[in-house]
């Protein structure tokens, strides 16, 4: 069963501020799209909505359902992931405290489950032939599982390079796989399925891109809420987030910003976007956000040549920055984390690499930090 939030009042553009009615906006704000500056929209709630903290019941994401687009949604037990202390690595790096939020503890092994739960609820509610996503791994595994739980047909568009464990997980859930040669071709197929056949897409398919489906992305707020609740993160200086097009980065920002507004936190920590090669970093230095930033890396889950406006806002509003994680250093940090008992996907381990890059920069004074461990390593091929 799924039930929309009675307090959902509409969707607001994060760039121009235009308020749009409750509907579907897979291509972001119509006004900004017409202006050739694609930007995401976010759900807004009326003044009667209860506060995020203390107003919910249950466990996991369900505790915060009153602040999500759908108060009832297909659930596999996502949320309430552990925050693990890393005292040995903190000493090695000269920090007072270092911890990692293990999103690998979600049902399909990644943070994507927080998005899938809300997205699938919306897709089920609106009808249509099914759901679709362009994915190199985690999003496909997650969406196929949640679609199966909701009884929805699912298509995952990927490349032949997809890891066999991810492919098997998608196939076992009953989803159809369509193979293409590159990411832009994936987007073209998804775009046709959405515009011509009415499929609901969990992921972006535009170039320049916007964030993923806004109903789904709002599920990532719950990770920000959980960080705000934990005493270990009360005064953390910086949070390191592996970033491609910034859905998770934006969700964490939005959840923490609400926590500050409600008095749960005294201030907003700096959000540091960790990318495989300079993209957002170039935008922050003045390059047009709509540009392409080509590069190659083994960090496939955060790959791609594009940047979103939501990433830019999350970093600038939190006084954060973007850092690059060279793949050789990320590989070393993946092993380093494994030697501390945490086997993470390479793109997730890059959060530690990003921290190393940040503390080496002149003028940086990071005393405490949180890494976002987006996914475990058991789905990767050697």
Walkthrough of the structure:
- 35% of the residues lie in helices and 16% in strands.
- It is an alpha/beta fold and 382 residues long.
- The protein folds into three domains: 3-72, no CATH class; 83-107 and 217-373, Rossmann fold (3-Layer(aba) Sandwich), CATH 3.40.50; 112-212, Rossmann fold, CATH 3.40.50.1100.
- A six-stranded mixed beta sheet has the order 6-7-15-12-13-14, with helices on both faces. Strands 10-9-8-11 form a four-stranded parallel beta sheet, sandwiched between helices. Strands 3-2-4 form a three-stranded antiparallel beta sheet.
- The longest helix is centred in the first third of the chain and has 15 residues, at 112-126.
User: How do the strands line up in the largest sheet?
Assistant: 6-7-15-12-13-14
SSE series: EEEHEEEHEHEHEHEHEHHEHEHHEHHE
Q: How large, in whole angstroms, is the Cα Rg?
A: 19 Å
Extract low-pLDDT stretches. none
Gap between N and C termini? 39 Å
Helix tally equals 13
Number of domains: 3
Give the helix level as a range of percent.
25-40%
Overall geometry: globular
Mean pLDDT: 95
CATH topology of the largest domain: Rossmann fold
Strand pairing plus helix content: what structural class?
A: alpha/beta
- For this structure, what is the CATH class of the largest domain? Alpha Beta
Number of strands: 15
Describe the sheet with the most strands. 6 strands, mixed
Assign the CATH architecture of the largest domain.
Answer: 3-Layer(aba) Sandwich
**Amount of beta strand:** 15-25%
């Amino acid at each position: 069963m799924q039930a929309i939030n009675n307090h959902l009042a509409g969707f607001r553009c994060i760039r121009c501020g235009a308020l749009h009615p409750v509907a579907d906006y897979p291509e972001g704000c119509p006004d900004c799209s017409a202006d050739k500056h694609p930007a995401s929209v976010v759900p807004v709630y009326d003044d009667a909505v209860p506060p995020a903290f203390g107003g919910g019941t249950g466990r996991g994401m369900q505790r915060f359902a009153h602040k999500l687009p759908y108060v009832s949604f297909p659930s596999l037990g996502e949320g309430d992931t552990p925050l693990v202390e890393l005292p040995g690595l903190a000493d090695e790096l000269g920090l007072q405290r270092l911890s990692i939020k293990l999103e690998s503890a979600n049902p399909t092994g990644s943070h994507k489950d927080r998005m899938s739960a809300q997205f699938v609820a919306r897709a089920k509610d609106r009808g249509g032939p099914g759901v679709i996503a362009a994915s190199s791994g985690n999003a496909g595994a997650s969406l196929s599982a949640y679609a199966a739980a909701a009884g929805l047909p699912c298509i995952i568009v990927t490349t032949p390079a997809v890891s066999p464990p991810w492919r098997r997980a998608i196939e076992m859930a009953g989803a159809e796989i369509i193979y293409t040669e590159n990411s832009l071709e994936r987007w073209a197929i998804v775009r046709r399925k959405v515009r011509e056949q009415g499929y609901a897409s969990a992921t972006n398919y535009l170039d320049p891109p916007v964030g993923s489906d806004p109903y789904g992305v709002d599920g990532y707020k719950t990770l920000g809420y959980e960080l705000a609740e934990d005493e270990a993160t009360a005064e953390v200086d910086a949070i390191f987030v592996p970033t491609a097009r910034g859905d998770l980065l934006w969700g964490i920002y939005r959840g923490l910003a609400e926590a500050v507004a409600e008095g749960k936190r005294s201030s907003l920590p700096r959000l540091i976007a960790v990318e495989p090669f300079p993209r957002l970093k170039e935008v922050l230095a003045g390059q047009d956000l709509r540009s392409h930033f080509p590069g190659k890396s083994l960090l496939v889950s955060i790959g791609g040549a594009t940047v979103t406006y939501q990433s830019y806002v999350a970093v600038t509003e939190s006084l954060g920055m973007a850092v690059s994680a060279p793949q050789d250093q990320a590989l070393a940090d993946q092993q380093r984390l494994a030697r501390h008992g945490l086997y993470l996907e390479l793109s997730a381990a890059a959060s530690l690499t990003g921290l190393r890059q940040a503390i080496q920069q002149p003028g940086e004074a990071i005393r405490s930090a949180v890494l976002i461990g987006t996914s475990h390593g058991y789905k990767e091929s050697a």
